[in-house]
Structure formats: C-alpha cells, structure tokens
C-alpha cells in the first residue's frame, strides 16, 4: 500500500468519527449542522478509479447514516456528488483538471472555494430534500441547505488550509 492509499483510509475513518462524535451534536439555531465528512469526497485524488471512488462515497454516506440513524439520505447525497464531481472539477479548475494535474493543496483559493461550495450546496440540498421529503416545506429545505452549507464550507476550507500547509 502506498502512502496515498493509507492517507485516504485514515481520512475516511477520521472524518466519519469527527462527524458522528462531534459534528452531529452541534446544532446552531435548531437546524444548522456542519457536515465536514464530505471533505473525503472533495479531496479524493482525481486520477483514481471512478467506480471505487463512487463505492467509497456510498460507504462513507452509509456509515454516517448508520451512526446518525438517518435512513440513507447521506449515502444518496454522497453518491450524487461523487458522480457529478468530474463536471464540477472541470468547471472550477478548467485545464488543470483536463490534464489530471490537480493537487488541491496547490490550487488557487478562489477555485477551491467555488469547487467546495458547488458540491456542498448540492450535497446538502439533496440530503435535506430527502430528509424532509415534502415540497410544501421548500423554504425550510432551502433555509437548512443555505445555513448548513455556509457553515460546512467555512469548516472545510479551514480544515483544508490547516492540513495542506502541514504537507508542504
């Protein structure tokens, strides 16, 4: 096993533990929670096996669902953003993605925030839509999506900055 594989395995389990033991118990204003476990999907190496990546994303969401007793909403949202990730990467990073040369610690801050924001908003919208599952509550869905997404984006950007500086 190479160090990249070990790093990914460590990140996978660490983010699940952080989500389940810490972040699931944070509850601002009754409905705002951070979901930093999506960082595994956001920062997964670009040039790896796509089928394995989608499967790992499903497992990530499934573990969070099992520990959160949330009935599959995290797994569905994770698989969705894992599936659309190449399109968002191409939009956010352009030619860097085309040449498979993205190293997230070396990307421009603005591009990284755009990339994180798009996938996190989509993840949260799908998750809260499936959790509430009532179109008459669209305002509540959008409100939870917006505020939890902002909190998650800030947390993910901070975590990625902290850990990318240690690697350089």
Automatic annotation (TrEMBL):
The chain crosses the membrane at residues 12-30, 50-68, 75-93, 113-133, 145-163. The keyword Transmembrane applies. The keyword Transmembrane applies. The lineage of its organism: Bacteria, Pseudomonadati, Bacteroidota, Flavobacteriia, Flavobacteriales. This is Rod shape-determining protein MreD. It comes from the Bacteria. Keywords: Membrane, Transmembrane, Transmembrane helix.
